[in-house]
Specification:
With 431 residues, the chain is an all-alpha fold. It has three domains: 119 residues, no CATH class; 209 residues, Ferritin (Up-down Bundle), CATH 1.20.1260; 41 residues, no CATH class. Helix content is 79%, strand content 0%. The longest helix has 62 residues. The protein starts with 7 loop residues before the first helix and ends with a helix. This is DUF4407 domain-containing protein.
């Protein structure tokens, strides 16, 4: 069993502990300065973040932002200074858990009062531009959907033209006598021409909408192009946001107009009226047999009319049932809110903003681990193993001074009264 006085492992541990203490003493010479620099840097970015939230740019707003940033810097410096000193010094598990909980609570408070503002200062403009770009995409989808529905409605014009053409062909057949057997422009002919005229008027209304739809879509694309350019133009994003908001209002009006240009409701109502509102002319045949043929033909025409009307109504209802263009509303947003809303797109900025505030936590853990190593290396070590050469020399000098100091004596009967009083004063006894 090795002699504890000359145990080389214990002596080596004490030497390592002294080395670690020397490193800590050297690091402490600039640790406070480094912590102050981090606190000031966080305060500067906090000031920029607070300034972006204040609408007023007057003296009071500037003073308020400055006061808040100074308070944040002081709070960060004091908080981490406490932990850098106290956390490595505690030895019990209960105390360490308590300080760890305090450090976690303080870190959350620092993130709440500083880190998100730092992120707003680092990536606020980019986040607002991201918001503008997302809004442009939403408006583009809404415009394209409204245009698609409008074009689908315009396609009903071909169905109307086909039905109109069928009635015109039937009327031509009636004029030559191939339908009811009575040539001429009689009652059957007038019924067919009446409905073909109604369908022709409907077809003309649909055709009038086409240029309006094309014009609105072209103008909407022009506005979208300008909005896209505003998202990437240089310069302050606040000024660009104002122009972007104006363009968004104009584009929203065009999308609403395009929704109103769809002809599906018009075709649906016309199809319902096509079979419901038929003005039957007087049968004009000279013979009863001829009038019977006309009545039978008109009945057949009305059946065909009802079928064609049902087909048009179903087609119009299919168009009306299409999913409408989504409602899009542009809401201006501050840089701080934009950073929070699009946080997933700015992870590096968030990481940098949080790291500048919570980096001292790493220093706290480093010091705690190092002090724990020093205590474990010195556990069970005698004081002789931990003394440095300078401390040993000082101890020897004190020992020599104690040896050279004469021992106090008691007064004797041979001493004069003055000698007795002097001895009493030296020994501390009351004269």
């Amino acid at each position: 069993m090795p002699d504890p006085v000359t145990d080389p492992s214990r002596t080596r541990g004490a030497r390592y502990a002294r080395d670690l203490e020397g490193h800590i003493e050297w690091l402490e010479t600039f640790s406070g300065t480094a912590l102050g620099v981090l606190a000031v840097a966080s305060g500067i970015y906090t000031y920029l973040g607070v300034s972006s939230l204040l609408d007023d740019t007057g003296v009071m707003s500037t003073f308020a932002a400055l006061a808040y940033s100074v308070a944040v810097s002081v709070g960060i410096f004091v908080f981490w200074s406490y932990l850098l000193r106290l956390f490595p010094a505690v030895t019990t598990a209960r105390a360490r858990v308590g300080l760890l909980g305090t450090m976690g609570l303080g870190s959350v408070a620092i993130i709440a009062m500083s880190s998100w503002l730092n992120a707003a200062a680092l990536a606020g403009s980019a986040a607002v531009e991201q918001h503008l770009a997302e809004t442009v995409q939403d408006y583009q989808q809404s415009l394209e959907r409204a245009h698609e529905i409008a074009l689908t409605g315009q396609a009903l014009g071909r169905d109307v033209a086909r039905v109109r053409q069928s009635f015109e062909d039937l009327s031509e057949q009636e004029a030559t006598g191939n339908l009811s057997g009575l040539a001429g422009r009689g009652a059957v002919f007038r019924v067919l021409r009446q409905k073909s005229a109604e369908l022709a008027a409907l077809e003309a209304q649909i055709a009038e909408q086409t240029p309006l739809v094309d014009t609105a879509f072209a103008e909407g694309n022009t506005i979208l192009s300008r909005m896209r350019s505003l998202t990437v133009e240089p310069g302050p994003v606040e000024a660009r946001s104002v122009e972007f908001s104006e363009a968004a209002v104009r584009l929203q009006g065009l999308i609403t107009q395009m929704r109103q240009l769809t002809v599906a409701p018009l075709v649906e109502r016309a199809a319902q009226d096509l079979s419901a509102s038929v003005v039957l002319p007087e049968l004009d045949s000279r013979t009863a047999e001829g009038r019977g043929d006309q009545a039978a033909t008109i009945t057949s025409v009305l059946e065909v009319l009802g079928q064609r009307a049902a087909t048009l109504e179903n087609a119009a209802q299919e168009v009306a049932a299409l999913e409408p263009a989504p409602e899009v509303t542009y809401t201006p947003i501050s840089s701080a809110d934009a950073v929070i809303l699009y946080a997933r797109n700015f992870v590096p900025s968030w990481a940098g903003a949080i790291a500048i505030d919570l980096l001292p936590a790493v220093l706290v853990l480093i010091l705690s681990i190092t002090h724990g190593m020093i205590r474990s290396m010195r556990d069970g070590t005698d004081i002789e193993d931990t003394m440095t050469v300078a401390e040993l020399r000082a101890a020897i000098a004190v020992a020599h001074e104690i040896e050279d100091t004469p021992a106090p004596r008691k007064p004797t009967s041979e001493d004069t009264p003055e000698d007795r009083n002097k001895v009493k004063r030296i020994t501390g006894t009351t004269p």
